[in-house]
Give the backbone structure.
Amino acid sequence: MYDYIIIGAGVIGSCIARELSRFNVKVLVLEKENDVANVQSLANSAIVHSGHNPEPNSLKAKLSVWGNKLYEDMEKELEIPLLRTGAFVVAHNKAEEEQLFELAKTAKINQVPEFSILDYKEASLIEPNLSKSVTKVLSLPTTKVTYPWEVAFAAMENAIINGVEFKKNSLVTAIRKENDKFYVTVNNSDILESVHLINAAGVASDDIASLIEKNVQFKIKGRKGEYFVLDKRVKGFVKNILYPLPTELGKGVLITPQVHGEILLGPNSLEVEDKYHPTTSYEGLTYVKDHASMLADNIPFNQIIRSFAGIRSTSDYDDFYIKESLEFANLYHLGGIDSPGLTACFAIAKYLVNDVMNVNKKYALNPGFNPYRKKRKMFHRLSQEEKQDLIKDEPLYGNIICKCEKITEKEILDAMHGPLGSNTIKGIKKRTRAGAGLCQGGYCEEKIMKMIAKEFNMSPLDVAYDKEETKLFVSETKVKL
Amino acid sequence: MIRDIVVIGGGASGLAASISAKKRNKDVLLIEREESLGGILNQCIHNGFGLEVFKEEYTGPEYAHKFIEEFMDLKIDYLVNTTVIKLDKNNDDFIITLSSKELGIRNITARSVIISSGCYERTRGQISMPGDRPNGVITAGSAQRYLNINGYMVGKKVFILGSGDIGLIMARRMYLEGAEVLGVAEIMPYSNGLNRNIVQCLNDFDIPLYLSHTVTNVEADEDKRLSAITIQQVDERFNPIPNTEKHFEVDTLLLSIGLIPDITLLDDLYVEVDPKTKSAKINQAYETSVKGLFICGNSLQVHDLVDNVSKESSRAGLSASDYLDGLVTNRKKIAINPGKNILYVAPQYLDFGWVEKDLLVSYRSSKKIEKALVKVYQGEKLIYQKRRAFIVPAEMETLTFSYLELDQNQDIMIEIEEV
């Protein structure tokens, strides 16, 4: 019997789990995927927005400005990576400049700190590759970039250390409420009980709600976004995030420097039929290239190493939907958490726990709560002295497994263990970046496959890319080597 | 201790370069990141290697073994399981930072460096292939390694995109292991592999080759495994032609869509790069724009035959020795430019300071030419020409001529005339 069951372990579910672990409550997180951060949190722009864009007085406005500030604390407590890029929203002509001034007004109402308007000349001194067609920019220095996977890992690892249980590969297939208790069926078999139920299922949040509610208050209309990744060799091409002016479709195609040096181009924004299978398309990717070219000149398209599509869980409700169910007490929905959901995730968790669920009035604090979490070491980013120190005690830091990203054997072993250890190729990639570079795993996947097999005492035939069904091999060769 | 030469990469290229330099009494250290020497040859268990160098046909591992034997006999120093993580310059010397379990992180100083780090496979990301991103889309070389080194099959129903040699070899290999190989699609109107591989790997097994076709959709099943692909014919500008779709239910899509020289180690040295070869520009001695830094094998230009890698790298080893022996003086260089119907040339420069008096140029044509006249001009002056029949982009061509009489102030241009 749990006090709280959270459905969904994206950045939202993970942050809620951590926030609840401050209290003396029994919490379980259920995730249908084989890892945290595997759907919406997996594929997005990684931006911590300033809060300049949302409708004033909306939850989105309030929680994104607050969430942006909280990232500064979380950098210290959870060692979440932050790249303080700042951002430029660009205008190309008089009409767009008018919109830019309007946007600056919104930024002011939303209490975005330190924003200013620069003309092309000033802006191009900071961003020499800024498109020459730009006339003015709105500079938003508090905008930053994080690493969404690490946000989820950090929050969930910290939650686990503070007593939260996490179950992956656990699809919720039925929910009913009887005698003030929720009965949650997982994978059509196990039934779990909880006093409270939190629906943080992202793209699936309306489907989860419909397992128990007659009149679900929001409908998720999946919007896909397609992206290109430019190799980290282009680092410095832009320092700020470049935004076009927003439209009702969203913030538009951006150029976004990433924490590890790559640059993202995208996303477009297309409503899709199948919200569970965002795919890239020739047209979509061409759109991204064309629109990115309106922000900067001479984009090094020849350095593209990957394209991908992500899904936003946009809803028909105009704002974040963070409310108690109208039909069932103690059931809480987080619907329509699209952009700026990553920005707001820590604030969303605090708002839900303290202001919506009033957990502080129902339960005592967890006396053993430890807010700190040490991140896994990224060896190649350390100083020469630190490296030599570490390697003395742990020679496996000397063995490079992923040569593109310079990830060592020790880092990969670390990613297999600990509170959120992984035994999949994708899980290792998300935790260490092994396979995320130029050759996209061409050289290191085999080595990691062998390490997983050895470390977990598995046959290579059982090593999977992600879910159990995605095994790397179908059989042995005819002649056993 | 300052080494004469550090060779980075212990495949076909690095072995040959080390051997030729050692035979000139140079102090050579070879660094290899894998656990054994031989490089990609170790996973190429098919035959067809060595016809030019040994006048005999070997498998990849046998070919590698011939070189490894000679390498060992010469007692050349080498390190395996060791990755070079940084290459830098200190005055005239090079600082090589290497990393391994045994040595930790360590700097080595050398008077010259030979890069023989091979190439990597182009991935689906680099060609922006549309559709889902399921498990089961894998580069041909990776699948080859899994099959031939690890002993595992990546799938049972296979389609191959790209007609590069590895793709063709893998079509046969998968077929012989019992997989159903449904076809090979090539976006160009001609094959990118050697003709002998088209015959021996596709035709002999009735595997269809779809020229001017590419993959335009990738579909995944519920579990994010590859379930089907769509190929489509493309027009001369590579745009898919509507209503030419062909649908194949497959569990594996192998990619053989090109190899790219791996020169990431050169990033800190600001070496002049040729966007056509995607590698460093060199002079005829395989020296980059950085004095004393040489490059050869597939990290210089992607070869069709390993025999040519060995021969080229052997020459690079001799060049490094000449450099160390102080035989290079009075440097003065002119450019060698690709002209009509030429995809690329290497070397891109001719340096008159080097002792060799014959210039060997490798090049590829940009299209299939049945009757060709290859011409070399210096300004208006035709300085060399030769006739060739059946020039195709998939097969590297070479030409050799003396540069003794050349004007040292004017660039050279190579072109192919259709006759």
Chain A touches chain B through 60 residues (CB under 8 Å). The longest strand of chain A covers residues 190-199. The domain at 87-141+224-295 of chain A is CATH 3.30.9.10 (D-Amino Acid Oxidase; Chain A, domain 2). Residues 59-77 of chain A form the longest helix (19 residues).
